[in-house]
Amino acid sequence: MFKKILIANRGEIACRVIATARKMGIATVAVYSEADKDARHVALADEAVLLGPAPSRESYLVADKIIAACKQTGAQALHPGYGFLSENEDFARRCEEEGIAFIGPKHYSIAAMGDKIASKKLANEAKVSTIPGHNEPILTPDEAVSIAQRIGYPVMIKASAGGGGKGLRVAFNDKECFEGFTSCRNEARNSFGDDRVFMEKFVEQPRHIEIQVLGDSQGNVVYLHERECSIQRRHQKVIEEAPSPFISEATRKAMGEQAVALAKAVRYQSAGTVEFVVGKDQDFYFLEMNTRLQVEHPVTECITGLDLVEQMIRVAAGEPLGFTQADIKRDGWAIECRINAEDPFRNFLPSTGRLVRYQPPEATMVQAEPSRFGVRVDTGVYEGGEIPMFYDSMIAKLIVHGKDRAEAIAKMREALNGFVIRGVSSNIPFQAALLAHPDFGTGNFNTGFIAQHYAGGFRAEDVPHDDPLFLVALAGFIRRKAREREAGISGQLPGHEVQIEHDYVAVVNLGAGQSERHALHISEFAGALGEALVKVGDRAYRIVSRSRLNDVRITGTVNGQPFTAQAERGTAKNPLAYRIQHGGRSMELTVLSPRAAELQALMPYKAPPDTSKLLLSPMPGLLVHLAAQVGQTVQAGERLAVIEAMKMENILSAVQDVTVAEILAKPGESLSVDQPILRFA
Fold it and tell me: What does the angle CA 392 – CA 398 – CA 399 come to, to the nearest 5 degrees?
């Protein structure tokens, strides 16, 4: 067995590999860029080597520097994680030539399966059903349009070396095909150094289901059941679960056997994933094979009890698999939510900056350990750390394991309630809304679920809540508790002590100067026991909570049922307001005495400044292209600028016909949120 391995990656996956290596008694070496010098994976590893500047093309993608780090530290093996160089055939070969064990498949397997065009040809030869398409590189946008017309819309345009949703577009007409082809090539060239693009028929209403496979150097290959990955946004997975609520045992077995046959055809060693698109009648078609560890591997670990990273290390060391297909059982139900630094209420724009608060829910399952039926958090961040603009937006992966799907969903919803993130925006409200959607609960969804139900974007009113008045009652409970503390402060002037009221008015901020009001009556308050009866109109809530006033995460019971919520005092515009969060719903409200509420109603509303004549940067990022000049008239829908953030191109288009009056930012400039780019006449 290896004595020391190097992890050629960053973030949560580097921390994940370190956890298994530590369990196995293997020393670890981290590599890092200048932007990651204070990163969690650097602190966890036994040694760390600086690779270079922040951009990945100057650090994590430079094979020579990583090979040199292995030699410098005496690392016998290298785990590539996912992304970066994990599916780079030349890098895997270099490691082998340098005598460094590559903890992943052999270079010839990566070559056969990593190239999507070659893999489809091989799948056809192996008699695996594939989707109709054009499997040769497409050279021009006009050629792409011609091929799309022949295949028939809609079509999927995919970069041959793509992955993680990058270099991928769906086109429903000639215009979308022309523009999508260009964007795919650019993203593929920038992210993977390979701008080859191909095309296939887009199967409407599909399920995205993948099979986890594991092979050793003795030719043994098994499948570890499936993962349901159909909840996607812009072809990036949002929620994954195992098993799938859709496929039958017969389909599961057939897909698994095809995946094994394909893996054996390329002499596959290590962990890998064979992805299928599954139709409504459970007909399935090969999409691609990911020759690496997947982001969503924890859900497979939960239902099988296997540590996939450990298996990868053992296979790379030459050990045979310690089990057969018959030994692999499936137990319970696991769900993973990807917690990303993005603002779902601003079209999921990236959000970078410092994690002012980071308090994940309590983990009862541990990485690299066989503990099950609980909560697990895989992360590479910590409170006070930075979310840099140079890499992907993932903050953490939240994983739960339940006895069945209903229990797993309930556990995940409660875990999301207690996940505290401040300083950057996160997609937690969106995750909560998805989990609460009735179609998700019944398993009635496909890869178009998000596009179908949130076609106009995601809004605060899209977050359902069983009882929003509970948030009002909780704010009243906290306010009453604060008054109790204020009344107990010593040194108050006799006859003028703080009086503890029983009646309040909760003023809920609806935005744009609008509000709604609720009369509160709080009785039977027992401060020492943290208990009160709160009436909101004709609704009664008996709340019991021992959480302190300065705790962001509030736990307790309401009418005998346990709850976890988040509460904070003071907002940017109103230091007296409370912000209460529960079930993905966020409510800003002020709890006042009846007289104060009367006076507050007389306060005028100050409208925000008019920015309609400005193009503002919706995110921090790099301005890579300006498509308009001073004096130019741009029609609605035409491109104005392109901003690159977190390895993705973001196109800003005109929402109406405009004339450019002034250019306020130059290409190559790093932009902040809401920084003006153009002024219109």
Answer: 130
Quick one: three-class SS letters along 339-351?
Answer: EECEEHHHCCEEC
482 phi and psi angles, rounded to 5 deg: -65, -40
Residue 283: its pLDDT value, please?
Answer: 87
- Cα 431 to Cα 429: distance, rounded to the nearest angstrom: 5
Residues 6+ apart with CB under 8 A from 546: 530, 556
> Residue 170 pairs with which residues in a beta bridge?
156
Give the per-residue pLDDT at 164: 62
Q: Which residues are catalytic?
A: 288
CATH fold, domain 469-489+498-600, is Glycoprotein, Type 4 Pilin (3.30.700)
Q: From CA 621, how far away is CA 341, in angstroms rounded? A: 14
Grouping H, G, I as helix, E, B as strand and the rest as coil, residue 563 is strand
Cα distances from 106 to residues 93, 97, 405, in angstroms, run: 8, 12, 37
Q: What angle do CA 259, 237, 282 make, to 5 degrees?
A: 45
Burial of 82 (0-12, 13-18, 19+ CB in 10 A): middle
Give the integer Cα–Cα distance in Å for 80 and 68.
15
- Domain 132-201: give its CATH architecture: 2-Layer Sandwich (3.30)
Residue ranges per domain, the chain? 4-103, 132-201, 207-450, 469-489+498-600, 614-680
Would you give the DSSP letter of residue 426? -
Which CATH number is associated with domain 207-450? Answer: 3.30.470.20
H helices present in 160-219, as ranges: 174-192
Contacts of 105 (CB under 8 A, 6+ apart): 92, 113, 268, 269, 270, 272, 291
Q: How far apart are CA 532 and CA 558, in angstroms?
A: 10
Q: Which residues of the chain have pLDDT under 50?
A: none
Measured torsion, CA atoms of residues 477, 481, 486, 489, in degrees rounded to the nearest 10: 170
The encoded tokens of residue 280 equal: 């409504």
* CATH number attached to the domain at 614-680: 2.40.50.100
pLDDT for res 22: 97
pLDDT of 437: 95
Give burial (CB, 10 Å; 0-12/13-18/19+) of 333.
Answer: buried
Instruction: Check residue 205 and give its pLDDT.
Output: 82
Cα separation of 334 and 162, whole Å?
27
Q: Which CATH class is domain 4-103?
A: alpha beta
Q: If you search the block for the tokens 């292995």, which residue do you land on?
A: 70
pLDDT number for residue 163: 66
Q: How many CA atoms lie within 13 A of 271 on its CB side?
A: 28
Helices 308-316 and 297-304 pack at an angle, to 10 degrees, of 100
Tell me how far apart the terminal alpha carbons of the chain are, to the nearest angstrom.
Answer: 69
pLDDT at 142: 95
